[in-house]
Amino acid sequence: MSKPAERRTDWAEDDDDVETSTALPAKTITKNPDGTETHVSYRVREDGRRVKTTQIIRKSVHKQRVNPRIAERRHWSKFGLSAKDPAGPQSDTTSVGENIELNLKVGFKGGDAGEKGEVEKEMQDLQDKQKAALATARVKCRICSGEHFTARCPFKGTMAPEGEMNAPDATGATAAAVAGDEGAAGAGKSGKYLPPSMRAGASGGGERMMGKHERDDLATLRVTNVSEYAEEDELRDLFGRSGRVTRVFLAKDRETGRAKGFAFVSFADRNDAAKACAKMDGFGYNNLILRVEFAKKTT
To answer: Among residues 250, 247, 292, which one has the least CA distance to residue 274?
Structure first.
């Protein structure tokens, strides 16, 4: 009896058998009685060997109160390449970090709560004192004693500050006292030296150190409403068009170095000073209108 001929398999069936033999089992998830889950998965290494991975996972739920808008945003429908992803962040597209809340308060470096409270109380007391002082403070002008700033005084260019014009002459008082003590005998009676101006019969005023080179107040102009950015050289060139200028004094602030708003310009001839006064009074300089007048002679 002849044997039945063996059935030859098709080459396509052989390929199917090979693919079936190399296929990996599906991932399985098993729930355990203690609440954990066992995840079993398979993979193929680079050398072609199969590897079985078993993981035991315990899930825990953490409840946290967040802003309602944040909770609502988590349920929005996704779009683009993540349109088919489930709700919530995905580990492959989203990195979730820890939320750190930073609350800064006054005196947070002071230590414990007691020290912070004392610092806040001291600051509040200081603010209350400053407010009380400002509430009772009044502005007083040094020129006319009015309730306005000295810089805005209407008599700024015509009056001197109070106490300067009528101040007692210390030199005269000292001379009178010494003359009364020494009598009419003059210097050297009691062994003390007296300057000539303080001796009996003297006029009471000594010679000034400048002597014949003393500045002539009759040829000096007082310039007001000067810009704070003005310079002495600029004023010298400006007033030098009317005559020879011998001296320019521009008052400046020591801290800022800017002009205070007034200056004195001295001429060699009074006629040149008069020409400059008539020409420069009302002249525009650095967006301001200059006021020029003859300086009052000091007493």
So the answer is: 292
Contacts of 178 (CB under 8 A, 6+ apart): 194, 198
Rounded Cα gap, residues 98 and 92, in angstroms: 17
pLDDT in tens, 62-107: 887 888 888 888 788 888 888 888 877 787 777 777 777 777 766 5
> What's the length of the chain?
299
- Give 141-156 pLDDT, tens digit per residue: 887 777 778 887 777 7
The 3-state secondary structure of the chain reads: CCCCCCCCCCHHHHHHHHHHHHCCCCCEEEECCCCCEEEEEEEECCCCCEEEEEEEECCCCCCCCCCHHHHHHCCCCCCHHHCCCCCCCCCCCCCCCCCCCCCCCCCCCCCCHHHHHHHHHHHHHHHHHHHHHHHHCCCCCCCCCCCCCHHHCCCCCCCCCCCCCCCCCHHHHHHHHHHHHHHHHCCCCCCCCCCHHHCCCCCCCCCCCCHHHCCCHHHEEEEECCCCCCCHHHHHHHHCCCCCEEEEEEEECCCCCCEEEEEEEEECCHHHHHHHHHHHCCCEECCEECEEEECCCCC
Q: Return d(Cα 141, Cα 130) in angstroms, integer.
A: 22
Rg (CA), the chain: 50
Reported as a pLDDT band with limits 50, 70 and 90, residue 267 is very high
The tokens for 121 are: 């109380």
